[in-house]
């Protein structure tokens, strides 16, 4: 009797286990047969607009004085007095030093050293009491009423640079400011090491704010033309190439494009679209080709 009861219980357990296994199998099969809802990406679209695009030539260099000279005395002797100091403004005919040229047994009038040119004293090279000759330098002077930004332009861009071309110069010393300049000299030779050509830009400097030696960056216009532009967010990069998406029958389709200059938050499109296409301008970075899209209100 006990054996029969054990057999009945065992059969009941086997039936229960089998039934539960069948239920799990059926549930999994039904789940596999159910279709997974396709992902839909919300996007905004727009058309490329025609805009004036300015391409720039950028170069960097240093500020230089318009001219630099060294002053000498025409006679030898002892410096009695320096009439100017570092930073003094000098005009033509101004006395800059007094020289005592007395010799043993002879008495001479003191000699006045005068400047032949205007400028600012950049270095005082001798002190009072120093014995000098006519070949001893006394002062270094610079003329900085106007200065030169001497910048290095890439040889690829030099064909766009011409005499008189206007430029905008900025300096680290004056953030947020720019200074108008004009091309006044172009070197006839190219630097073979960095493949650049020196270009001089003349800048008016009446207040002497620009100092020789300051680092300068220059920007010149290369060309001005009309071109199609799109928001930068519309352009995506895949495998090193640039693309935009256009919605076709509710799905994202890739269009290869060639891009040019970035202007603020827009980018120039050189080829690949005509300007009549609806382009996905928002949400493009989340898309893959053929993915379903939902165009929301522009």
Provide a descriptive summary of the structure in words:
The protein has a 6-stranded antiparallel barrel. Strand 15 and strand 16 form a beta hairpin. The longest helix is centred in the N-terminal third of the chain and has 32 residues, at 2-33. Helices cover 11% and strands 51% of the residues. The termini are far apart. It has one helix at residues 2-33; strands at 40-46, 49-72, 77-82, 89-90, 95-100, 111-114, 119-124, 131-132, 137-154, 166-171, 179-186, 196-204, 215-231, 236-238, 241-248, 251-256, 258-263, 266-271, 279-282, 292-295.
Quickly describe the structure.
The protein is mainly beta. It is built from one helix and 20 strands. The protein has four domains: 1-34; 41-53 and 225-295, conserved putative lor/sdh protein from methanococcus maripaludis s2 fold (Beta Barrel), CATH 2.40.420; 56-63 and 144-223, Efflux pump adaptor protein, beta barrel domain (Elongation Factor Tu (Ef-tu), domain 3); 74-135, RNA polymerase II/Efflux pump adaptor protein, barrel-sandwich hybrid domain (OB fold (Dihydrolipoamide Acetyltransferase, E2P), Beta Barrel).
Rg (CA only): 40 Å
Specify the CATH architecture of the largest domain.
Beta Barrel
* Coarse morphology: elongated
Judged by helices, strands and strand pairing, the structural class is mainly beta
- What's the helical proportion of residues? 10-25%
Largest sheet, in brief, is: 6 strands, antiparallel, barrel
The CATH topology of the largest domain, please? Elongation Factor Tu (Ef-tu), domain 3
Q: Strand order, biggest sheet? A: 2-9-12-11-10-13
- Which residues form runs of ≥5 with pLDDT under 50? none
Tally of contiguous helical segments: 1
Strand count: 20
Elements, N to C (H/E)? HEEEEEEEEEEEEEEEEEEEE
Give me the CATH superfamily of the largest domain: Efflux pump adaptor protein, beta barrel domain
Mean pLDDT: 87
CATH C-level label of the largest domain = Mainly Beta
Beta-strand level of the residues, as a percent range?
over 45%
Distance between the termini: 83 Å
């Amino acid at each position: 009797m006990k054996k029969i009861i054990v057999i009945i219980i065992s059969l009941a357990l086997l039936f229960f286990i089998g039934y539960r296994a069948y239920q799990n199998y059926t549930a999994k099969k039904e789940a596999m047969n159910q279709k997974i809802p396709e992902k839909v990406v919300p996007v905004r679209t727009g058309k490329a607009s025609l805009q004036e695009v300015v391409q720039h030539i950028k170069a960097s260099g240093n500020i230089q004085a318009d001219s630099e000279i060294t002053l000498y005395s025409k006679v030898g002797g002892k410096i009695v007095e320096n009439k100017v100091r570092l930073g003094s403004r000098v005009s033509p005919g101004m006395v800059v030093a007094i020289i005592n040229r007395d010799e043993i047994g002879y008495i001479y009038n003191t000699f006045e050293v005068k400047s032949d040119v205007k400028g600012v004293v950049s270095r005082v090279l001798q002190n009072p009491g120093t014995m000098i000759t006519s070949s001893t330098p006394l002062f270094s002077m610079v003329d900085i009423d106007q200065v030169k930004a001497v910048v290095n332009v890439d040889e690829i861009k030099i064909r766009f640079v011409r005499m008189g071309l206007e430029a905008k110069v900025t300096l680290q010393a004056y953030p947020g400011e720019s200074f108008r300049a004009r091309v006044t000299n172009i070197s006839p030779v190219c630097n073979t090491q960095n493949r650049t050509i020196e270009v001089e830009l003349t800048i008016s400097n009446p207040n002497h704010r620009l100092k020789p030696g300051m680092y300068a960056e220059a920007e010149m216009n290369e060309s001005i033309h009309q071109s199609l532009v799109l928001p930068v967010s519309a352009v995506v990069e895949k495998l090193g190439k640039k693309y935009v998406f256009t919605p076709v029958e509710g799905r994202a389709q890739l269009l290869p494009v060639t891009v040019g200059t970035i202007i603020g938050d827009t980018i120039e499109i050189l080829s690949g679209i005509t300007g009549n296409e609806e382009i996905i301008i928002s949400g493009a970075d989340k898309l893959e080709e053929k993915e379903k899209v939902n165009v929301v209100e522009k």
